[in-house]
Batch of 3 targets.
Target 1
Amino acid sequence: MMKTGGSYALKMAEMDLKTATSAMEALVRATSNMKSLEHELHCPVCKEIVKQPVVLPCLHSVCLLCASEVLVANGYPPPELPPEPNSPASTPNTRSPRQARRPTPKNEQRPIDRVLRSGPHPPSPSMPRSPGYGTYPGRRRKEGPPLVMMFPCIPCGRDVELGEKGLTDCLRNLTLERIVERYRHTVSLGSVAVMCQFCKPPQTLEATKGCADCRSNFCNECFKLYHPWGTPRAQHEHIQPTLNFRPKVLTCPEHDQEKLQFYCRSCQRLLCPLCKLRRIHTGHKILPVAQAYQALKEKITKEMNYILSNQDTVLAQITQLESSITQTEVNSVSAREQLAQSIRDLTAALAERHASLTHALEGARQKRGEALAAQVAERRGLLEHRRSLCFHCTRLSKAIENLQHFTLAADPSFRHFQLDVSKELKLLTELNFIQVPLAPVIDTQRSLAYDQLFLCWRLPLESAPSWHFSVEYRRRGVVPGGASRGGIRGGLAAARWGWQRLDEVSGSSAVIDRLEMDSVYVLRVRGCNKAGYGEYSEEVYLHTPPAPVLNFYLDSRWGLHADRLVVSKEQRCARSVPGLSLLQAADHALTSCHLTSDLLVGDVAITQGRHYWACSVEPGSYLVKVGVGLESKLQEWFHLPQDMASPRYDPDSGHDSGAEDALDSAPPFCFLTMGMGKIYLPQHSYHHQQRDTNSNGHSSPAGLTYPLPPRLGVCLDFEKGRVTFYDAHSLRPLWEGHVDCTGPVCPAFCFIGGGALQLQELVANRNADQTPVRRVTIQPRVSNLNNG
């Protein structure tokens, strides 16, 4: 049984091998047949597949265009050719025999007739020059022999007479055209014949037409049968036979029979009505396909028109690029020469140093050799005089001492003549071309915008050194909050705002002055050395104060308790330290905590305008209040005499006392409380508190606490009686209140318990000793965006 099964498998394998061999042979024969068929379809003139073939009188076929070119080359006038069809060879669907053989109307003059009447013509290869037989006055049309056009047929090897009408009398070879088209279609299908899907086997015929609506292939008879004349099926679009029908209308791959009618711009995909209802497309911008197509077409058209309208710019850029390529080649050659020269200089320096060290080594060798040779000679002298009785006593004692304490006159080792080249080898290993500086890193904690812009940066550790820096800045047209200044015009003006530059900035900081208030500035830095400019740093945004900066100092003459409050020598810092009095007061308090408050005010009084200042509170402070207060009320608060001389009051300040009526109800003080690393923000401003008090009978003490900002900004609008507190680092408004401005108003600070405060120093005072840098404007400023 095993042998029988093995022999059966062997026979089956042999049969499969024979079948595969037969198939390969059939494929080779089919390929050979196709090549021979293609050779038969070639035009004898152009050696390509015939196109619009015409039959010559010798029954050979040639392309119509090739035949006309041959006649023109032989001196005949060019005939008027019929329009070329869309397909490589005309088919019965596009051109009929009747159309090809239709006679020319009598009322039309054919071009060949005009040629024949025009007079003499150049001789053909088989016909000598003869006088003209054209029609002219004094001679009849029928006189003279007719013109005979001769065509040199390549397959025949002789001239063929075409007649007086030339190619007009040659018929189109429609059968050859159909064969050519069938051949082209078969080759495009990979030599796979498309059969009719409606013929009954075994007489299945090859398909000649395909229907895009029915998505089926038909032979001629089946197509007529299933598309009868006068029915809607007769209007179906017929195409060439194919195995892959493209749908006339795109349908949804997820929902059958649903047309893709919409386009989602967010997802960039086509949608059917059912896909459009899905939750994933909620909020997306969905357009009809026609509208999306039109929008995309207009966009592409505009972009193409822009490119076409800027051809001069493109050509100029191409010229610039070509010049840059040439310059690159020239500069690379120069750099290669400089590299070779540098290596030669290093080699020369090493050779010179090698000669110097070799000379020193040779000198040391010679000197040591001489010393040792002298010592040997001395020892040999002792041996020669050992038997001599006249040996001097002094020399004898010295010789004995040398024998007892023998040492070499020179060290034979050369250990200290070895070179330590580890550092030099490291330098040579790291030898490289000079690099531009890396992008600087801007210190956002030290950079600030106050009376001037102060920008601070540093280079990364792995960066190449920089000779100097270039600082660029520009004003941005959008302030924090997203609003664009001046609407559309302001946005356009901001878009045209050019970069301004400070060149050759030494050090790692720069000061920028002459800035506009309440504006956002964009800044960036890059370094420069012998290799050129490096990359820009990341852009930073600094917001200038909303009002002119007020510079003042702390006034230590007001309510200052020396045992609890200490003011620095510069009068810009203050520290509150609970003293002995607080300890004694707390000793008598058993049920409550006794707190003392110490007040500090600025040495300036405000009587008009808008002003801004900033300060920083130590995070470990217990309670510190920062704000403003009416000067007279501050004096009453601390029970100071009313007629105390104060440099803060200016009776001729021009203050309009008519504002008293409008702000009768405003409080005399406006403070924000900070402490223990937090800042307390009341829930409502002054007007909201007044409204809540009137409606509910009491004011709600609820508020919010936020982390204490590094710096706190205060802006006082004296005319409006309004005080706004900011995060001075980002100029983000924190809280807004109102204050009575019927008299001079002073900056005020209140300490409860331990704490410390420091006024923000002016940038101009901090950098007064710096050398000013040169200012360069990259693009001219086109508009003034100052708002105040």
Target 2
Amino acid sequence: MHPIIIFSKMDFSQSNLFGYIEDLQELTIIERPVRRSLKTPEEIERLTVDEELSDIERAVYLLSSGQDIQGTSVVANLPVLMRQSPAETLRRVLPKIREVLHVAGVEMQLTAAVSFLTVLQEELVSIHTYSHSFLHIILQNLEHRDAGVSNAWLETLLAVIEALPKETIRHEILNPLVSKAQLSQSLQSRLVSCKIMGKLASKFEAHIIKRDILPLVKSLCQDVEYEVRTFMCRQLEHIAQGIGTELTKTVVLPELVELARDEGSSVRLAAFETLVNLLDMLDADDRSQTVLPLVKSFCEKSFKADESILVSLSFHLGKLCNGLYGIFTPEQHLRFFEFYKKLSTLGLQQENGHNDNQLQLQNLEQEKKYILVRKNCAYNFPAMIVFVDPKNFHLELYSIFFCLCHDPEVPVRYTMALSFYEVAKLLNSGVYTIHKELVTLLQDESLEVLDALVGHLPEILELMTNAGENSGSENKLLSIPDLITALTTAEQRAATSLKWRTHEKLLQKYACLPHIISSDQIYYRFLHRMLTIILTNNVLPVQKAAARTLCVYLRYNRKQEQRHEVIQKLIEQLGQGKSYWNRLRFLDTCEFIMELFSKSFFCKYFFLPVLELTHDPVANVRMKLCYLLPKVKSTLKIPTDKHLLQQLELCIRKLLCQEKDKDVLTIVKKTVLELDRMEISVDAFQKRFYENDLLDQEKERQEHLLLEMVYLMSTICPFFSSKEDKKSKLVRSQSFSTQALHPKYSTLDKCPNSATGYTSSGMGKNCMLSFTGK
């Protein structure tokens, strides 16, 4: 076969053409086996079923004489049959399934386990019928030779145990379990017994567990196979919860201590993790005399002879340190803290070509283990702040925090980004000390890190702002220039990536910025960027996120000339834009305007530009406008907006008479019916509109208050100092704390520190914009 050569420029000369034809002929050979794999007429005949058969008869036929794939289809359809004909399914189909499962393949077995579980969860039969008809089939298949099949049936059984009455469990499951757990039984049988006993511990009283289950537990803890000891060890937590603290201390704890010294590393690991999970059930004496020595032993061996426990130890260290906090001596407290410090830089600190514990990274697996250890240290960092005390953060933990935020591996920095909000909450008024690390993570080269940080970005920024105000304005002001640069850099990096969901999320969270930085900073660094994104980005969710955030910025802008400029740009560049896509985004923006601003604001600036789009040459724009018209009409108040209502009615009449697109016309007719049913609110309050009117009145009051404040500041107190300006901003924010926002952007509700807006009444009349039609 000739190799297929890729040319930078294809040569179709006669000498080369035959070579290409040969290659194409050889490629057709590849298709021949595919054609041979098609079903022959005989095979199709065997797969064909009489269409006149009922669902039950068809199921029985396919299970009796069909192929495996057909039988599997019947088993998957069992819940449907149970809903349609439960009695007939139990009488005719289920026995056939039981018979077929003896020789069924893995796929049918897994499908049956899922179907049986679905029948239970959807309660398609009573629990008595289920235990009589289905339970025996489940128990028969528990010890399937395939481990995956066995686990699937086991998961189904564990779910069934939750619903079964105690007597059924005792006779059908517990009594046979005594023989199944014996050493003479197969390994798979003993492993299954371990998990079942862990589940049974929650179903019976302590004295029954002590009499019937604990002897089996002890036997399995001493099993000759390490897999069984490991399985049983992990079930001891459930056993302990079932028997209570007293029996746990006398029965379970000694078994755990012995298993913690087992020769099998997986057994020791299971014992350690179970001990950590049982800390809450142990008293101070047990913790100090039993658990603490074992933990110290694990810590010592983790770097020497037992590295298998190192990852688990690093993961549980925060829980351990805080669980044992009350029994630590100052020396032990320091020792465990030093151990955490050592783990947090494991594999990083170098001295003369060697790290602290003189270990070289021998292979990739060890390097991955060390990365996972540092990641776990990042996960436990908030717990270590509690352990050390937030007051000692700067002295004891800041260096570790710095290292973890600058770790060379993405998973470590990603985990720190996820934990950053918890760290900020714990530091409280001292949170401003970590603003440099916030800037670092915002500018991280990995978008995964940025995505993790952005989730709680509004809350983090609010904490930092409040801490700056409480501890002195200098700290806050010093952090802002770096912060703004980091925020703009983060947005630009997200915009140039292919991860548009991260970009969308970032833009949504940036809606909190009016509560963090000044109106001018937002105007010059963020607001115009949002408009650019709406105009140039190709991803609709990103454009909508930018549009809403822009509307929030407009809502909180404090300068009339800036607001007017933005409004004018929205109308000219979006509403009257050359691209129909921009005009569609204008309608999206108007929806956000109606949500965030008062009715009078929308009517003053956007009502007529929206109606202009009834003449749009693109059907999709007119169609979207028709869907929006009911919301547009709801912004009107009579008699104040009577002339706008007349304009709306005129536009609708034109659409009805002149619209040529049949799809748009259909929507216009539906919209007309909806508009006819709508009632328009009047200037005076009405009971049926009371809540909406009250909310709108509050928005209008806020907009009016903003104008008054801006006017006073510009005419009476132009020489306000920055500190006084902040105080006035805080006073104003208290009157804006009742704003209503969309739940998707609820972060704004958590930052009621400042607000701005605009109004159409009183002193704002001389600012009205003029609109020219297209």
Target 3
Amino acid sequence: MKRAGTLRLLSDLSAFGGAARLRELLAGDPAVRVRGSPDGRHLLLLRPPGAVAPQLLVAARGPGAELERTWPAGQPSPLDAFFLPWPARPALVLVWESGLAEVWGAGVGPGWRLLQSTELCPGGGARVVAVVALRGRLVWCEERQAGSEGPLGPPATAFSHCVCVRTLEPSGEASTSLGRTHVLLHHCPAFGLLASCRHLFLVPTATTWHGVAHVLLIWSPGKGKVMVAAPRLGLSYSKSLNPGRGDTWDFRTLLRGLPGLLSPREPLAVHTWAPTPHGLLLLDFGGTVSLVQSHGGTRAVGILQEAPVGPRGSATLGTFQGTLACVLGSTLELLDMGSGQLLERKVLSTDRVHLLEPPAPGMEDEEELETGGSLRLLSALGLFCVGWEAPQGVELPSAKDLVFEEACGYYQRRSLRGAQLTPEELRHSSTFRAPQALASILQGHLPPSTLLTMLRTELRDYRGLEQLKAQLVAGDDEEAGWTELAEQEVARLLRTELIGDQLAQLNTVFQALPTAAWGATLRALQLQPDGNGKLRSQAPPDVWKKVLGGITTVKEPPNGILPPFELLCQCLCQLEPRWLPPFVELAQQQGGPGWGAGGPGLPLYRRALAVLGEEGTRPEALELELLLSSGRPKAVLQAVGQLVQKEQWDRALDAGLALGPSSPLVRSEIFKLLLAEFAQHRQLDAHLPLLCRLCPPELAPAELLLLLRTYLPDEVGPPTPFPEPGAEPPLTVGLLKALLEQTGAQGWPSGPVLSPYEDILWDPSTPPPTPPRDL
């Protein structure tokens, strides 16, 4: 049965702030650029330079701040503006032809606020001709000063452009993080830039030199590759282009190394370009629509009933549910993407229609969740969605029926009985109450909109995950897709109770994609280095409670499943071992009763050491750092003992001096340990000032001498005035002077004299005269 296309009104724009101004701009200026935010709640309208005020309008649906900006005559207006896919708050970036870029955000104060301003072309003398935002990156094409004539014989300005990229990500509540600029292409022509969800398309423009105007490029950041394609020649070549590895290309060198691309060919005569998740759509002046796929191949999609007659770029192209939608003037044509057959043709009541990008996965609101897979069109009359009606005679199951069918499969998988469980049994049995409760809610006890509001976050998460999984199962195995899947899964699991299946799933993700899993944990714990080699965190206590909990009392974890803390330590050992001690030190500061830090069970440093392996097989340097940073007396003494064995005297002394006044006993034990070494050999003589600082202030000179006497090596023969050649020099009074002065630095003791020689140490005058000798 033939499907029927529907054009349904979603909103008459009255729900948006400044609805009257919004309708006025949409109806009055055909050249206005319209963009929708990733969450579907904001609309951005940017008028071309020279238009009347306002030139920028950002309208919010429901409660939300508006933004209106106008640039006076003589002052340039932005070249383009884009929403940024930041989940925490709405944000947009404005880019000027001069290279100035401004990032604005809402939700961090009253109204919209300028978060950061930067120069994309700090050297001066460059002009931005095209810009696009692509998944946390800002990509632009800039014109630089022309050099000498190229080897291909074009004018000097033909290859005076370059394409640059820069990461742009949120940082904290009210700031942004801009990466360094990386040049993707040198000496290239003027390219137009278009972006889909995963690819960047570099297309020729009217000013591109005709000798290369038949070539376009497709950059896939997730794969680290660029595809050079000539659709009219049927040629495509793949090259590596990964900014993370420092890849860059000279455009002229790139083309010379690809056979056949420089064959004489007419430039691409394209009326309208349109990026889609399937590839790049192009509409020529004859009405033929073609699709350039991400691998560089080109196929015809279909031919429209009428050819475009308006200026370049005035048509609107989009895809939904295997259907191509094209708006030409006031006509909407729907074509089957597979066969090219015309499915439906509608006449609209206006000729000024704009296509809105679909919301980002997981960021849809109630309307998008109900009309998933449809195409959104915006005009002065309102916001519409284009979709397909279900064929008549097909009865869709009710939500209540779906609940019992899903619950039936769920309970059957966990049932031990052999009999088959049926939905009817679930309806009337009093054993399974959860599906009955949910069915009663869906039956009308709660309005659907209220239920969607209650489950909005969960629906977004699960919908986004399922869509991403479906893309990967379909064969898109690019690294970025797997990374995003792992990050979303870890973020979801950290919001659950990490026991049983959830903990096993977390272990699986960390084993399969440790880098992506650690990145998600980094954001969840809000870890940042403080510049002194330590870490700080702004995560709430509930998150740390989940990470530090799950203490295991057995030596070997069941089935190899590690608790969250041990799992993170193991991941850090693989990726960044130097950050393991600061992480454990920070975790010890976060613990509460029963969390695994400051509560019953093993201390966190012992749990981290267990991850490193059995004693004797652990990396020595990492084990030492863990022991020293733990702050535990036994651990510090153990570490100092190892340092003494390695004869690393500086580190041993620093470890003792790092202990504060609250640990006098540990400092005293470290001092005695080092004093024993000082008494037996002379390797500590150069470090005597530090040893004096470590000396306990309450230690009396007599006690020091008694300690030294116990540590002195036994004499094997009669004393001699000088040591034997090659023997270790003995301890002398001169070496002891600094230590004895340190113990006596507090003044004459108030108690009785403990030694007949102690008054010599306390007498500041000259020594007594020598008694007369008998002649």
